């Protein structure tokens, strides 16, 4: 019985741990897509965030690592915005190039400056910070409230973004740009500015996702450690139906699918192919996309390029 | 308040020049709007009316010229700046977010926090004050065209605009709705505001305007008090002296005797065989809404049959059914093997803009073609169409995008008529063209009719339909009724009046 | 968004079905400019990262073209999967389909070929090899058909669905090489190696260049002819350029044309996978494809979506990747540096296209 309890809480804890970087990246992508920009270069922002965090944390500590991670994400997102927003180049192609660029750049820099002599870089990490009281809640308490501090930032960010989208004129402007840019222009809104801001925000959160991978989890940089999380974030946004709370829930689901792997190992069920469970959230995303409600939720002007001046 | 301010016009545009590349869209255009007046801005398509007003609204930067607001020179750098100065504009194509509510649309472009309840209350207040019925909670995609227009106006009013620019506001409305709008415009101006009414309709202009300015080829050619001018003077200012009176008449919507005109243009025989017919046809769209219900209509060989309707009456689906481009959900349709089709939106539905002219000609019949393409003969056919329909181009390898709107339309019409089809279906065939191009499109349609083709034409402009058609049907809310050739009867029927 | 793939193309490319000599020369110039740009970018990167650019570049050149072995067994061998997957992307993008799923379709193609071998065992190559390639194509096509169906029936953006399917394919392959297709000792996560009798025949003596290269060249020519000279190829181009006009003015069955092109694209990617399996790797494992399906997007775009252009850009990328390995080995330069070069090339081409289309818009406005 006790063993079962610890397995359950271990599974839930792993779920939240997996979900944290995914939710950061997906929350940014959600904002960006609501402004009509689909950014598949997010993968690049995550890996840049991871390297930026590694370098800065080694020099100036964990806090500086998170800041540098976010800034590295913003930097690579700025290149994306330059092409996809300012020049109105195809978002998918630009995003593909940005991801290749980032994977190549981080790999080259890491191998050149750190990896050449075979010394793997290890960085300081942050430890779980249980919140007194809340973390004692049975079953879910430990999983939700005995996490590294960066996870708590997410707990704040999700409601703030949801509130901002619904209850501020800036949020209204963001949605208008993603639905009908001409209407936004006529109302005096500048779509390029709104989209660029949304893309940079997504860059920052994706950078934080990368920083989380290094500073709260792995404790080191590994080439290609983003491992497709930028693409998963896009699936999460769809599954969350382009809403911040939905995105948070979908991130937990993807986190759970990944956490099953360690649960199976702990249970000794190694003969069950965990790869098949990894597939479940993707298939679910496709089902949601195919459903009428999923389609209706998508911003009408997503990935449109023929937007007029300003 | 100084004396100068009292007498200064609300807005004046002095010698505005706007250049797109090497062509002049505006060539010393001027306009002066006094407070408390309705100012009609007249001109045919392409004369620069909308361009001039986009300059005033900050959407386009003038190459040269001054804009003065209450006598003081200003730079209107963006729509946001224009709105801040009290200038609002309702565009011909509405700029509403259909996935948002009326209140959200009205609130768009402001700053700070958004309170849904307060925003709805504000819409309620403005619409009640202005006498424009509107439900603030309704989503825009559920609104009728008339209600969407009211929403656009309320949007501008919410910004406390002193000057409201309306671009062809009556084009999408049925005659009685248009009359209501014009009355509203009058009241709005009488309350001390100013209105610029962009139109190409002399009828609308003279019904409501205090002053009239006419643009031709980007230049202001006439400014007068409405009371001091006549139809004839305005028409010759709009079209120049080389325009043929008959064309000018219906384009500008003057009060010529249309029945007489129509019968004068129509061959005596009207008893050709039925070529196109729908019997009890219905169409249900992807959302499950029945957009055409139990519609019957026929077109004989050698006649032009017109369809009049307000936007959203199901006319586009009906035209596609009779062009063989859409299968009806119920009912019977008689179609010849070959039906030419000239859709309203040529950029979306008729052309490969980045394709060459011969690729665009190859498009016709591409669905049924098998095996190899013979580019040699396609090029020859293209050259033939270019010659016969007077398409001005640098050659058959030019892209369709490089053609002017009128030449694109002539290319499409030429393609659809080249093989002398038994039937031709056209939608708003002259939208966006200047009067010379309009005249040549009309001539081509009449020539096809005289050669025995059954021509079915939908036009949103009731006057153009009446001028071209031998017989008229009216569509309202998915239903089709045959009408007499009378402007008032057709106008009532477009709104669903059962006076036929 | 359904016809937005059309926007990938520029004006010159839509009409490129029939190129004059002048445009052919332009295409050659374009490849030369790309190659020049590649080398310049590489030098800059090497200098910035503090490497000996001279040594690195000569290692790169040796690795790509330095010997008979380098040319035939490194560069040309790497060109084959890039080229085949590149053709897959060309077919899709030309039809206005943003198929980002070449990677997954390629993996499914390889897996299917592996499954055929698992079922048949070491049997007659004349029977088994064509069957493996055919099943690879079918599997790739079927994988694309899922996305095609979702697009057609439910309007699902293929960009998103193909990305999802790439992950599913990757997991599926991971499961196959640990489960049904795992080698008999059950130690390594990989499939049983193909016996020599089931390797694709080589083309040239003393090289690993297999007949896949010949297939690539023939397919590129065939696709070029198909787009240019046949009614069905024209339909695909018309749908990609403007689906609404293709339906309305051309009375083309857009749904069928799109689905056909999507499945054909998947089949070509599946062929890339099964050719790589039977011609190069001889086994399946987790990192079977080093992202060929994604690099193929760059290959296709840099080729201006022209089938023959794909031969040139696939060669360029094949040489880069072959040279990169030598550069890492001999000059200590990390091979991932070529990703930076490839990405920069895409961005350069994208920027040039945007600049060009702005110039066209300006010219139109003044017309």
Structure description:
The complex is a heterotrimer of chains A (310), B (500) and C (367). By secondary structure, chain A is mostly helical. Chain A is built from 13 helices and no strands. In chain A, α3 (62-86) packs antiparallel against α4 (91-115), α3 (62-86) packs antiparallel against α9 and α11 runs antiparallel to α12 (274-290). Chain A is globular. The termini of chain A are far apart. The mean pLDDT of chain A is 87. With 500 residues, chain B is of the alpha/beta class. Chain B has helices spanning 3-7, 49-56, 79-84, 102-107, 116-130, 145-158, 175-190, 202-208, 231-239, 245-252, 258-265, 315-322, 346-349, 357-363, 375-388, 405-417, 435-450, 462-468, 487-494; strands at residues 11-20, 23-33, 38-42, 64-69, 72-74, 87-90, 163-167, 194-199, 211-216, 219-225, 274-284, 290-300, 304-308, 330-334, 339-342, 423-427, 454-459, 471-476, 479-483. Chain B has a 6-stranded mixed beta sheet, with helices on both faces. Chain C is globular. Chain C contains 14 helices and no strands. In chain C, α4 (68-94) packs across α13. Chain C has helices at 11-14, 21-48, 53-65, 68-94, 102-120, 125-154, 158-176, 212-229, 231-241, 243-248, 254-281, 292-302, 307-331, 337-366. In chain C, 59% of the residues are buried.
> What class do helices, strands and sheet pairing of chain C give?
mainly alpha
State the end-to-end distance of chain A: 63 Å
The profile of the biggest β sheet of chain A is: none
Cα-atom Rg of chain A, whole angstroms?
20 Å
Oligomer: heterotrimer
Number of DSSP helical runs of chain C: 14
Q: Give the averaged pLDDT of chain A, no decimals.
A: 87
Strand content of chain C: under 5%
SS field, number of helical segments of chain A: 13
**Greatest contact between two chains:** A-C, 52 and 53 residues
Overall form of chain A: globular
CA-based gyration radius of chain C: 21 Å
Q: Unreliable segments of chain C (pLDDT under 50, ≥5 consecutive)?
A: 1-19
Largest sheet of chain C: none
Residue-averaged pLDDT of chain C: 87
The total of beta strands of chain C comes to 0
Give the % helix of chain A: over 70%
The helix/strand order of chain A is: HHHHHHHHHHHHH
How are helices and strands ordered from N to C of chain C?
HHHHHHHHHHHHHH
